[in-house]
Design brief:
Oligomer: single chain
Structural class: alpha/beta
CATH superfamily: NADP-dependent oxidoreductase domain
Number of strands: 12
Number of helices: 10
Order of helices and strands: EEEHEHEEEHEHEHEHEHHEHH
Shape: globular
Largest sheet: 8 strands, parallel, barrel
Amino acid sequence: MNYRRLGKSNLQVSEVSLGCMSLDPKIEDHSSLLNKAIDSGINYFDTADFYDKGINESIIGKSLGSRRKEVILATKVGNVWDNNGKTWHWNPSKKYILSAVDYSLKRLRTDFIDLYQLHGGTIKDPIDETIEAFETLVDSGKIRHYGLSSIRPNVIRTYVEKSNITSVMVQYSLLDRRSEDQILPLLQSQDIGVQARGVLAKGLLRGKPPCPYLNRSEENINLLQKKILKKNIPYAATGFVLANKAIKTAVIGLSTELQLLDFIHGASSPLKEIDLKWLRKCFLKNHYLTHL
């Protein structure tokens, strides 16, 4: 496994990381999977207080046990479940963030969070207040670094300008190249690390039956799937993402040990330049149309 420094921090993250949202909430103990991930070189685990109403964090905290110090824990804040347990609302206020972090710490069974991220955000948020909350948490030692998880260019640019974010999580894949135009170059120029999510495009890049995705029709997805299958480029999805120097880790939702072993064997192996050129030509760029 290869590692990359996340932004200006001292966090060295594995190129392939574990997106824990995929963990089955009905299984309380995922220690076997998490231990195998660590033993395989994965050291970056991503979760959120929103996933399964906090159960996801609790599972990770319990399953990691004594191996907590071997991993970089990242979680998120901002989405709040309503009392009915079915709907939720957005709350990026300082008061809420300073309160929510304590619940995450308790569920994760840790004294500090390596990377605390705002789980979304709009340009109408009280952004200065949100930044102040994260800075307060850094000063208190409850978090080591903070970042942003967003696909909105205007929000990302604002945080780059106003805050000391270490990283930004963006949606990026062969089927979603929107961030290539401005966001990835901006973040790279400011030495802000990028975590890529949606790398497998909801499974469409790993054999899931074709369906519409962003501006691409089902027919187009079907055609692209056939082309890439015929070309036979192993781990094209992760290889393409990691070939971009702005990307520090590809966050993959792995829920079984079989999936884990499959990815570990080659997901972080670099692609040949000739294959990268073919992929870029075959999977044409798409562009942001809103929140510019």
